[in-house]
Amino acid sequence: MFIFLIKMFMKRIVVLFFVCAAAVLLVLNFSCAKVAAAGNNNGGTKDSILVNIGANIIIPGYQALATNVNSLDSAITDFNSAPNSTKLSTVQTLFTNAYISWQAVSAYNYFGPASDAIPALTGLNIFPTTTAIIDTNISRNNDNVNTFANTSAKGFPALDYLLFGTNNTTLLADYTTDAKATNRQIYLAAVSADIKTEVNAILNQWLPSGGNYINTFETGTGNSISSSLGLLVNSIDQDFEITKNDCLGIPLAKIPVGTVSPILPNEVEAYYSGISIQLAVAETKAVQGIYLGNSANGNGLGLKTYLVNAEQQKNLKYNGGILSDTISLALTSTISNMQAIPDPLSATIQANPANADAVFAECQGLTALLKTDLPSDLMVSINYGDTDGD
Amino acid sequence: MFKNCINKILLSFKGEKHIAPLAVLRMAFGAIMLYSTIRFIVKGWIYDFYIAPKVYFPFYGFEWIKPLPAIAMYAVFTIMAIACFFILIGFLYRIAITTFFTCFVYVELIDKTYYLNHYYFVSIITFLLLLVPAHRYFSIDVIRKPLLKVTQVPAWTINIFKWQLCLVYFLAGLSKLNYDWMIEAMPLKIWLPANAYVPLIGTLLTKTWVAYLFSWFGAFFDLFIGFFLLYKPTRKIAYVFVVIFHVFTGWLFKIGMFPYIMIFVTVIFFSEEVHLQFIRWLRTIFNKKYLQENEMQASLVFSPARKKVLYSLLSVYILLQLLLPFRYLLYPGKLFWTEEGYRFSWRVMLMEKNGITFFYVKDAKTGRKGEVVNSEFLTPLQERMMQTQPDMMLQYAHYLHDVYQKKGVNDPIVTVESYVTLNGSGSRLFIDSTVDLSKQQENFSSKKWILPFH
Known about the structure:
The complex is a heterodimer of chains A (390) and B (454).
Chain A: H1 2-39, H2 48-81, H3 85-105, H4 112-116, H5 118-123, H6 131-139, H7 155-164, H8 168-176, H9 181-206, H10 213-219, H11 228-249, H12 276-292, E1 294-295, E2 298-299, H13 303-314, H14 323-339, H15 345-351, H16 354-378
Antiparallel strand pairs in A: 1-2
Helix pairs in contact in A: 2-3, 2-9, 2-10, 3-7, 3-12, 6-9, 7-9, 8-9, 11-12, 11-16, 12-14, 14-16
Chain B: H1 2-12, E1 16-18, H2 20-42, H3 45-50, H4 70-89, H5 93-110, H6 117-131, H7 140-144, E2 152-154, H8 156-176, H9 179-182, H10 188-191, H11 208-230, H12 232-252, H13 258-265, H14 272-285, H15 288-291, H16 304-323, H17 335-338, E3 353-362, E4 369-371, H18 380-386, H19 390-406, E5 413-422, E6 428-429
Antiparallel strand pairs in B: 1-2, 3-4, 3-5, 5-6
Helix pairs in contact in B: 2-4, 2-13, 4-5, 5-6, 6-8, 8-11, 11-12, 12-13
């Protein structure tokens, strides 16, 4: 009986099935078209603010990083060929430069090429580094750093430990007379080579001669989650929150880790080289650069330009003042107060954490501005789902 | 005059009407919900919304509703899609509509993060479709059991949908009659310029007068469109406006399926002749042998017992529909700020609201205090929604209390420092940051710990 019914209605069910299939195709088509529009908008118009940020800030940022990382890598090769104290201090200086220039681009690491190259994002600055894993890898002569197990045994924090883990005399001995000296040299080179490969790949993806993501970025107008403005604002917010939480919050025990704990001085970024504050300052300055549009090529258009436009059009106010200026001032003040904290941070928070505490609170205020008022007044979507209709 | 009007409305619920509009509504609704359900699945939202999160925000009184294991959640949505298809073709209609209603409402109740007025609207339309005989004409069910077929149905089964739609539009319009919307043209003044990159009209959207025009037109449209749709001489042009208005807003704003659902459902306003014509046109597509129906008049009459059940259900539903949107009057403070009595009231597109929360957990014994990293527990969307909605903050605070107690913190004191900006007001303190939220309970009374807006 039922089979008879099915036979009877087969034809119509087939017709209706096709109607539905068409509907499904439409959906797929629709969502793909949207992705294409966001990701590959070649002939589109360029936004002058995005052009300034892309061409004068982001690309030079990655270029500087690549240069520093490349010279660090050659210096390490040179050091390994015949380790001595002069070469060691050259490597150490170059490492500091490279790490600081990494901080200057970390604000763009949450979209585009850097976030596509997943190992670069998750792997190059995981701190605190797990020294036990590094030591084991050295004893076993395991120089494949790109495995899941080595997530916290690679990148800049690993170099920090390998190049500053102890005093320079002992360190030099570790690379020359120590039983595992050769293994240690191999591991050092492997970590550095990994950073070099990842960074150059990201830069290449941005460059017009390579992946040409710069064009996608400059033409990705609009304010959706996939627009360049949307990606940029979300990326900055994410990165600055990490600076606030991981560089200051966790060491100062402002963040509950398990049982609310006492201060954790050895969880600071760059614990061994002791340049934590320099790094945090570099990151915050990068945020300031994008906001003001400042670069080595002079002052230009930045996120603030959007905000000023929006404010003029809509006569927006921020608690009686002007939001765009409030953010500028908050950035300047946070940076100068941060600079006033003496490095190494690990020692400072044990001796006199009051300054660092105050800066943490200031970072919180800045986070509020960057995460609520800025996106709200620019109408940048931080929403992945649908919103309410009219 | 007023009495006359009421009489006319009451009269429209009596008498009989041809069933055709109901059959078309059933197909239109089935089709658009099928599309909507598939879209939801294709976008990967089942995982993002109902599998990935560690914590959920159920509605007050429905805390017992929990998401199912991953595979079952996928099954629920697949069943919904199949049910939509059955509704569309009118196959096993009663079972299909009941299944869809149950699954849809279940999913909506899991987490208020994803609450949208149009999901609420879909729930209501499904509920109404559950009560009416929408499958007893031009359906597979009628072919299977010809005795089911009727041509005349009680008029209320059709008019209840018109009533519901008029109510939605009118209340949406009424809620737009506020200072921000009418005098400040907010939030459109913020939202429209953000679309400046749109071709052709992009530059226009940055103009202030355009924001005012849109605000006033939007309010006027919502207030009166229902009546223009009811009134025969203006119906056609009103429907054209419905299509243009919804397509346009759908194009400018990220509002998902809502415009299309409204365009599809408002066809109910057309007369039976229009619907019959449409059905005749559909018949020409199919083999006439099975679907050709001889129009013998047959009326559907509900038994007195059935009537009693239906009418009491409808009375409760109508009463709720009329009262819920005004419950906010019972709460002090600015509605947009506190959001007490905000949901289920057809308040849409009224606020550009954004917030940030710094939650603190303090050990009652040792006095040690730390800030919570919200992204450790919440998805980005949950975090964003929680940061402007006090009832969600309360739920989250209770969750944090339990999590940190398990981690060994003594009687955790959970406080929040929260800043919110509303329609470009500039961020300001939202919640009393001294109150231990883990000791506060959710109930229908006003939340004293929400700071006044000023």
